[in-house]
Write a structure and sequence with these properties.
This protein is an alpha/beta fold. The protein folds into 2 domains: 102 residues, no CATH class; 158 residues, NAD(P)-binding Rossmann-like Domain (Rossmann fold, 3-Layer(aba) Sandwich). The chain has 9 helices and 13 strands. Strands 8-7-6-9-10-11 form a 6-stranded parallel sheet, sandwiched between helices. A 5-stranded antiparallel sheet has the order 3-2-1-5-4. β12 and β13 form a beta hairpin. It is elongated, with a radius of gyration of 24 Å. It starts with 7 loop residues before the first helix and ends with a helix. It comes from Halomonas icarae.
Length: 290
């Protein structure tokens, strides 16, 4: 006996927890004979549909409209709300003869990817801290058996053993925010070198002291990186503006304190662009509808 298909509200909760792009389609009006009543909902992803608005051509047109928004013009989901009108005897060619409006809300999923290199004490605390933020976390370490057991149960977290740092960097999606904090300075330097050579990382943070960065900076310059590229690396991480523009971090060097300062520094870098004054549906469209 097959399992009962997932209902729309269960699918909506799961997909939002997992950070998967999806759309929620809600029937908001009904006139004449229609397959479902106002309030009926379905959830749509690029490759699955959960629940139904009644079936038929009208439903397939709703799915196509939602997937067009999920694909976007540039391959990225277009977040926001749109209103689709269906005449079941006209646009949809169904014999019901009714009329419905469907509100389509597109949720882009996790728009931020954090690549974390190093599963030591600070790395583990960072992984815990960012879990509620809705980011996709790609957690790498070149050692075997170092990821904590709880990591396998976290949504949006992928533990990736990475014996080859350059291969791990090459597999990252464009625009990832990267934090480098492995157990080995040579591996840290190889990772920063590879990340700078990619040239498309949203930000790069390196754990360590000013003396460590001075050594790395010299070697990375010798490897061909110019000053503009080197200026993109934050090291030490988690520094706050102090008196007269100085940079400082509190004296607490416990892993949680360092992780907290690092995430606090990262938050403004991943903040969404400022939203426009008007959001959602155009007011004239709503007046015509209601």
């Amino acid at each position: 006996m097959s399992a009962r298909p997932e209902c729309w509200h269960a699918a909506l909760h799961r997909l939002q927890q997992e950070g998967v792009p999806h759309a929620l389609a809600t029937q908001v009006t009904s006139a004449g004979s229609t397959p479902r009543e106002p309030g009926a909902r379905m959830v749509i992803t690029t490759d699955a549909v959960y629940d139904t608005l009644g079936g038929g051509t009208f439903e397939w047109q709703t799915i196509a409209a939602a997937r067009q928004r999920l694909a976007g013009d540039d391959g990225q989901p277009q977040p926001g709300i749109s209103l689709e009108a269906f005449s079941l005897g006209g646009r949809s060619g169904q014999c019901c003869g009714g009329f419905v409006n469907v509100l389509i809300e597109v949720f882009p999923g996790s728009t931020t990817t954090l690549a974390l290199f190093g599963a030591g004490h600070v790395g583990s605390e960072i992984a815990r801290l960012v879990e509620p933020l809705g980011w996709q976390l790609l957690w790498h370490d070149s050692r075997e058996g170092v990821f904590p057991d709880w990591a396998s149960h976290q949504a949006r977290l992928a533990c990736r053993p990475a014996p080859d740092p350059e291969a791990a960097v090459g597999a990252l999606p464009p625009g990832a925010h990267c934090l480098v904090m492995t157990h080995d300075h040579a591996e840290d330097r190889a990772l920063v070198d590879a990340l700078l050579r990619r040239g498309d990382c949203a930000s790069i943070g390196l754990i360590g002291s000013r003396s460590k960065w001075a050594s790395f900076r010299s070697r990375l310059r010798d490897a061909g990186h110019d000053e503009a590229a080197l200026a993109r690396v934050r090291c030490p991480m988690g520094m706050m503006a102090g008196p007269e523009g100085s940079q400082q971090r509190g004296g607490d060097k416990r892993p949680y304190a360092i992780a907290l300062a690092t995430v606090a520094e990262l938050l403004p870098l991943v903040a969404d662009n400022e939203r426009p004054d008007q959001r959602g549906l155009d007011s004239a469209e709503l007046r015509a509808l209601f």
